[in-house]
Amino acid sequence: MSRPEIEVRALHKSFGDNEVLRGIDLEIGRGEVVCVIGPSGSGKSTLLRCVNLLEEPSKGQVFVGGTEVTDPDVDIDAVRRRIGMVFQQFNLFPHLSVTENLTLPQRRVLGRDKAEAARVAAENLARVGLSEKADAYPASLSGGQQQRVAIARALAMGPRVMLFDEPTSALDPELVGDVLAVMRGLAEDGMTMMVVTHEMTFAREVADRVVFMDGGVIVEDGSPGQVIGSPRHERTRHFLSRLLDPAMAEVEEGTSGQGGGETP
After folding, report:
1. What's the pTM value of the predicted model, to 2 decimals?
2. What pLDDT, on a 0 to 100 scale, did the predictor assign at position 246?
3. Which of 106, 159, 191, 220 is deepest in the core (most CB within 10 A)?
4. In what order do the strands lie in the sheet with 161-165?
Protein backbone atom coordinates (compact mmCIF):
# COMPACT_ATOMS: atom_id res chain seq x y z
CA MET A 1 0.00 0.00 0.00
CA SER A 2 1.39 3.41 -0.97
CA ARG A 3 2.17 5.96 1.70
CA PRO A 4 -0.41 8.72 2.26
CA GLU A 5 0.28 12.00 0.49
CA ILE A 6 -0.51 13.88 3.72
CA GLU A 7 -0.05 12.24 7.11
CA VAL A 8 -0.69 13.90 10.47
CA ARG A 9 0.28 12.08 13.66
CA ALA A 10 -0.71 13.05 17.22
CA LEU A 11 -0.70 16.75 16.32
CA HIS A 12 -1.08 19.34 19.06
CA LYS A 13 -1.03 23.11 18.75
CA SER A 14 -1.37 25.63 21.55
CA PHE A 15 -1.43 29.40 21.54
CA GLY A 16 -0.38 30.25 25.08
CA ASP A 17 -2.77 28.41 27.38
CA ASN A 18 -5.28 27.80 24.58
CA GLU A 19 -4.89 24.29 23.14
CA VAL A 20 -6.38 24.55 19.65
CA LEU A 21 -5.43 21.09 18.35
CA ARG A 22 -5.62 18.18 20.79
CA GLY A 23 -3.96 15.18 19.17
CA ILE A 24 -5.01 15.04 15.51
CA ASP A 25 -4.41 11.89 13.46
CA LEU A 26 -5.26 12.14 9.76
CA GLU A 27 -4.21 10.53 6.50
CA ILE A 28 -5.00 11.75 2.97
CA GLY A 29 -4.14 9.49 0.04
CA ARG A 30 -2.77 10.47 -3.34
CA GLY A 31 -5.55 12.00 -5.43
CA GLU A 32 -7.99 12.09 -2.51
CA VAL A 33 -10.21 15.10 -1.77
CA VAL A 34 -10.88 15.64 1.93
CA CYS A 35 -13.16 18.43 3.13
CA VAL A 36 -12.74 19.59 6.73
CA ILE A 37 -15.85 21.10 8.31
CA GLY A 38 -16.74 22.33 11.76
CA PRO A 39 -17.72 25.39 13.80
CA SER A 40 -15.60 28.49 14.12
CA GLY A 41 -12.75 27.92 16.54
CA SER A 42 -12.69 24.14 16.06
CA GLY A 43 -9.09 24.18 14.78
CA LYS A 44 -9.75 23.57 11.08
CA SER A 45 -7.61 26.38 9.68
CA THR A 46 -4.88 25.81 12.26
CA LEU A 47 -4.66 22.18 11.17
CA LEU A 48 -4.40 23.24 7.54
CA ARG A 49 -1.68 25.78 8.31
CA CYS A 50 0.30 23.18 10.28
CA VAL A 51 0.50 20.99 7.16
CA ASN A 52 2.87 23.42 5.45
CA LEU A 53 4.28 24.81 8.71
CA LEU A 54 2.70 28.24 8.47
CA GLU A 55 1.90 27.36 12.07
CA GLU A 56 4.50 25.33 13.95
CA PRO A 57 2.93 22.44 15.87
CA SER A 58 3.51 22.21 19.60
CA LYS A 59 3.78 18.41 19.39
CA GLY A 60 3.34 15.72 16.78
CA GLN A 61 4.45 15.05 13.22
CA VAL A 62 3.32 16.06 9.74
CA PHE A 63 4.45 14.30 6.55
CA VAL A 64 3.84 15.50 2.99
CA GLY A 65 4.85 13.20 0.14
CA GLY A 66 6.77 11.05 2.63
CA THR A 67 8.89 13.96 3.91
CA GLU A 68 8.51 14.99 7.53
CA VAL A 69 7.57 18.67 7.49
CA THR A 70 8.07 18.88 11.26
CA ASP A 71 11.66 17.57 11.18
CA PRO A 72 13.84 20.44 12.49
CA ASP A 73 16.38 19.72 9.72
CA VAL A 74 13.89 19.66 6.85
CA ASP A 75 14.28 22.08 3.94
CA ILE A 76 10.86 23.65 4.46
CA ASP A 77 11.15 25.80 1.33
CA ALA A 78 11.65 22.66 -0.77
CA VAL A 79 8.64 21.01 0.88
CA ARG A 80 6.45 24.07 0.36
CA ARG A 81 7.18 23.98 -3.37
CA ARG A 82 5.09 20.80 -3.46
CA ILE A 83 2.18 22.40 -1.61
CA GLY A 84 -0.21 24.91 -3.16
CA MET A 85 -2.08 27.08 -0.65
CA VAL A 86 -5.18 29.17 -1.33
CA PHE A 87 -6.38 31.47 1.44
CA GLN A 88 -9.65 33.28 2.17
CA GLN A 89 -8.08 36.49 0.89
CA PHE A 90 -6.52 36.48 -2.55
CA ASN A 91 -3.15 38.06 -1.68
CA LEU A 92 -2.43 39.21 -5.23
CA PHE A 93 0.12 41.94 -5.89
CA PRO A 94 -2.05 44.93 -6.92
CA HIS A 95 0.73 46.61 -8.93
CA LEU A 96 1.34 43.52 -11.08
CA SER A 97 -0.76 42.20 -13.95
CA VAL A 98 -2.42 38.79 -13.69
CA THR A 99 0.36 37.19 -15.73
CA GLU A 100 3.03 38.88 -13.63
CA ASN A 101 1.36 37.61 -10.46
CA LEU A 102 1.77 34.08 -11.84
CA THR A 103 5.26 34.41 -13.30
CA LEU A 104 7.02 36.18 -10.42
CA PRO A 105 6.87 33.23 -7.94
CA GLN A 106 7.93 30.78 -10.65
CA ARG A 107 10.99 32.83 -11.55
CA ARG A 108 12.04 33.63 -7.98
CA VAL A 109 11.32 30.28 -6.34
CA LEU A 110 11.66 27.74 -9.15
CA GLY A 111 14.24 29.60 -11.26
CA ARG A 112 12.23 29.37 -14.48
CA ASP A 113 13.15 31.75 -17.27
CA LYS A 114 10.71 34.39 -18.41
CA ALA A 115 9.41 32.47 -21.43
CA GLU A 116 8.84 29.23 -19.54
CA ALA A 117 7.15 31.03 -16.66
CA ALA A 118 4.85 32.85 -19.10
CA ARG A 119 3.96 29.56 -20.84
CA VAL A 120 3.07 27.88 -17.54
CA ALA A 121 1.11 30.97 -16.47
CA ALA A 122 -0.93 30.91 -19.69
CA GLU A 123 -1.68 27.19 -19.26
CA ASN A 124 -2.97 27.66 -15.76
CA LEU A 125 -4.99 30.78 -16.55
CA ALA A 126 -6.72 28.71 -19.21
CA ARG A 127 -7.27 25.99 -16.64
CA VAL A 128 -9.25 28.39 -14.43
CA GLY A 129 -11.04 30.02 -17.38
CA LEU A 130 -9.30 33.40 -17.28
CA SER A 131 -7.08 33.52 -20.35
CA GLU A 132 -8.69 36.78 -21.41
CA LYS A 133 -7.61 38.44 -18.15
CA ALA A 134 -3.87 37.82 -18.61
CA ASP A 135 -3.02 41.52 -18.92
CA ALA A 136 -5.57 42.80 -16.42
CA TYR A 137 -4.75 44.09 -12.94
CA PRO A 138 -6.36 42.70 -9.77
CA ALA A 139 -8.38 45.84 -9.07
CA SER A 140 -10.31 45.34 -12.32
CA LEU A 141 -11.34 41.78 -11.41
CA SER A 142 -14.26 40.52 -9.35
CA GLY A 143 -13.53 38.71 -6.10
CA GLY A 144 -14.27 35.38 -7.74
CA GLN A 145 -11.90 36.13 -10.60
CA GLN A 146 -9.17 37.16 -8.15
CA GLN A 147 -9.58 33.90 -6.26
CA ARG A 148 -9.34 31.93 -9.51
CA VAL A 149 -6.12 33.82 -10.31
CA ALA A 150 -4.84 32.87 -6.85
CA ILE A 151 -5.62 29.21 -7.62
CA ALA A 152 -3.85 29.49 -10.99
CA ARG A 153 -0.82 31.03 -9.27
CA ALA A 154 -0.63 28.09 -6.86
CA LEU A 155 -1.03 25.57 -9.69
CA ALA A 156 1.72 27.25 -11.72
CA MET A 157 4.21 26.10 -9.09
CA GLY A 158 3.43 22.45 -9.91
CA PRO A 159 2.23 21.30 -6.46
CA ARG A 160 1.61 17.71 -5.42
CA VAL A 161 -1.14 18.80 -3.05
CA MET A 162 -3.48 21.78 -2.78
CA LEU A 163 -4.68 23.25 0.52
CA PHE A 164 -7.74 25.51 0.52
CA ASP A 165 -8.66 27.59 3.58
CA GLU A 166 -12.32 28.67 3.18
CA PRO A 167 -11.62 29.81 -0.42
CA THR A 168 -15.15 31.13 -0.99
CA SER A 169 -15.91 32.73 2.38
CA ALA A 170 -14.88 36.25 1.27
CA LEU A 171 -16.93 36.11 -1.94
CA ASP A 172 -20.38 37.37 -2.76
CA PRO A 173 -22.74 34.39 -3.15
CA GLU A 174 -23.11 34.82 -6.91
CA LEU A 175 -19.32 34.52 -7.37
CA VAL A 176 -18.87 31.30 -5.42
CA GLY A 177 -19.94 28.94 -8.19
CA ASP A 178 -17.08 29.72 -10.59
CA VAL A 179 -14.45 29.11 -7.90
CA LEU A 180 -16.05 25.83 -6.85
CA ALA A 181 -16.22 24.76 -10.51
CA VAL A 182 -12.45 25.21 -10.79
CA MET A 183 -11.97 23.14 -7.65
CA ARG A 184 -14.26 20.42 -9.01
CA GLY A 185 -12.09 20.32 -12.11
CA LEU A 186 -8.95 19.88 -10.02
CA ALA A 187 -10.59 17.01 -8.15
CA GLU A 188 -11.55 15.36 -11.44
CA ASP A 189 -7.92 15.73 -12.60
CA GLY A 190 -6.74 13.76 -9.56
CA MET A 191 -5.25 16.57 -7.48
CA THR A 192 -4.79 15.74 -3.80
CA MET A 193 -6.83 18.36 -1.96
CA MET A 194 -7.49 19.29 1.66
CA VAL A 195 -10.30 21.83 1.80
CA VAL A 196 -11.53 23.71 4.86
CA THR A 197 -15.00 24.78 3.82
CA HIS A 198 -18.55 25.60 4.85
CA GLU A 199 -19.88 24.72 1.37
CA MET A 200 -21.81 21.56 2.21
CA THR A 201 -22.99 20.92 -1.35
CA PHE A 202 -19.40 20.95 -2.58
CA ALA A 203 -18.32 18.66 0.26
CA ARG A 204 -21.17 16.26 -0.40
CA GLU A 205 -20.63 16.08 -4.17
CA VAL A 206 -16.85 16.38 -4.57
CA ALA A 207 -15.14 15.09 -1.43
CA ASP A 208 -14.01 11.50 -1.07
CA ARG A 209 -14.09 12.01 2.68
CA VAL A 210 -15.44 14.60 5.09
CA VAL A 211 -13.78 15.32 8.44
CA PHE A 212 -15.83 17.05 11.12
CA MET A 213 -13.79 18.86 13.79
CA ASP A 214 -14.94 20.39 17.04
CA GLY A 215 -12.99 21.48 20.10
CA GLY A 216 -9.63 20.72 18.52
CA VAL A 217 -10.36 17.04 17.81
CA ILE A 218 -11.71 15.02 14.89
CA VAL A 219 -15.19 13.94 15.87
CA GLU A 220 -16.11 12.12 12.65
CA ASP A 221 -14.22 11.04 9.54
CA GLY A 222 -16.02 9.23 6.76
CA SER A 223 -17.77 9.46 3.42
CA PRO A 224 -19.90 12.53 2.68
CA GLY A 225 -22.98 10.35 2.82
CA GLN A 226 -22.09 9.19 6.29
CA VAL A 227 -20.77 12.39 7.91
CA ILE A 228 -23.18 14.87 6.27
CA GLY A 229 -26.06 12.59 5.39
CA SER A 230 -26.16 10.34 8.45
CA PRO A 231 -23.81 11.59 11.17
CA ARG A 232 -23.19 9.31 14.15
CA HIS A 233 -22.36 11.95 16.74
CA GLU A 234 -24.67 14.50 18.32
CA ARG A 235 -22.02 17.24 17.96
CA THR A 236 -22.00 16.69 14.20
CA ARG A 237 -25.79 16.65 13.96
CA HIS A 238 -26.02 19.85 16.00
CA PHE A 239 -23.49 21.64 13.79
CA LEU A 240 -25.17 20.56 10.56
CA SER A 241 -28.64 21.50 11.81
CA ARG A 242 -27.42 25.03 12.55
CA LEU A 243 -25.53 25.31 9.26
CA LEU A 244 -28.32 23.95 7.08
CA ASP A 245 -31.15 25.70 8.93
CA PRO A 246 -30.23 29.34 9.77
CA ALA A 247 -33.65 29.91 11.29
CA MET A 248 -32.94 27.18 13.85
CA ALA A 249 -29.57 28.77 14.60
CA GLU A 250 -31.26 32.12 15.30
CA VAL A 251 -33.78 30.50 17.62
CA GLU A 252 -31.00 28.69 19.49
CA GLU A 253 -28.96 31.88 19.76
CA GLY A 254 -31.94 33.62 21.30
CA THR A 255 -32.51 30.73 23.69
CA SER A 256 -28.86 30.59 24.72
CA GLY A 257 -28.93 34.33 25.35
CA GLN A 258 -31.60 33.61 27.98
CA GLY A 259 -29.33 31.07 29.64
CA GLY A 260 -31.10 27.93 28.50
CA GLY A 261 -29.41 26.79 25.28
CA GLU A 262 -26.21 25.13 24.13
CA THR A 263 -23.50 27.42 22.85
CA PRO A 264 -21.98 26.55 19.48
Report:
1. 0.89
2. 53
3. 106
4. 83-86, 161-165, 192-196, 33-37, 209-214, 217-222
